[in-house]
Amino acid sequence: MKRSFFLLISICISATLLAQMPDSVKAHPTRHGSVDFFGVSYPCSISEYDAPPDVVEAAVKEYMQQHGHKADSRKGFLVYRNVRLTHVHNGQPVDMFVLVEAKSRQEKEKTIVHTITAEPGKIPDKKPEKGAITPSAVVIAAGGAAMLSHLGSNVAGKEHVRQLGLQQAVVLKNERKLKDLQDDLAAMQKKVEQLQKDMAQNQKDQEAATKLIEEEKKKLAELEAKKPGTGN
Hints:
Elements: H1 2-20, E1 31-37, E2 40-49, H2 53-66, E3 72-74, E4 77-83, E5 94-102, E6 111-118, H3 144-150, H4 152-225
Antiparallel strand pairs: 1-2, 2-6, 3-4, 4-5, 5-6
């Protein structure tokens, strides 16, 4: 009964925040599921973001740091102990375990976030002894899903910066390509100008050679005409 109540509150808060957020910063609707942590399957909140995992993870860390919380890393999870957020569990302390990963091998630019939120100390950050943990006894603290929805604006902001950087890189790359083409054209124009000069000089040299040949042929003809025994 207690767990169902927390789930209901979590869903209501999540829906409220989603309705208030602009479309451009909304994550996909948050749902509930389960995720393994040290071999134990725990109930969790799940949300998707149209941004790569590194962008989403950076947004999570920044968001939590802004609220005074720094993560430890355990088995790929960001682990936050004794977290106090006004919209999570009515501001009461909770432990949060956040797993950020690519949606799939084919969709590496999209991210799925699994968030376990539970009362402090209920989940150990190491592998428990067999039977020592009863996952069903771990209650999803109200507001875990809301936190994921609220995070959407942070993700959108960082994804915008990333896309801006990518587009700036594309522009810069094409500007460099244009500059290279312009430099190549300038070099070719110089070669054409030099070739035109060489062609003009070649034409003059041909004319001079033709004139010289005519003069030498004339001399040859005169010499042939003065051949001994011809009577000249």
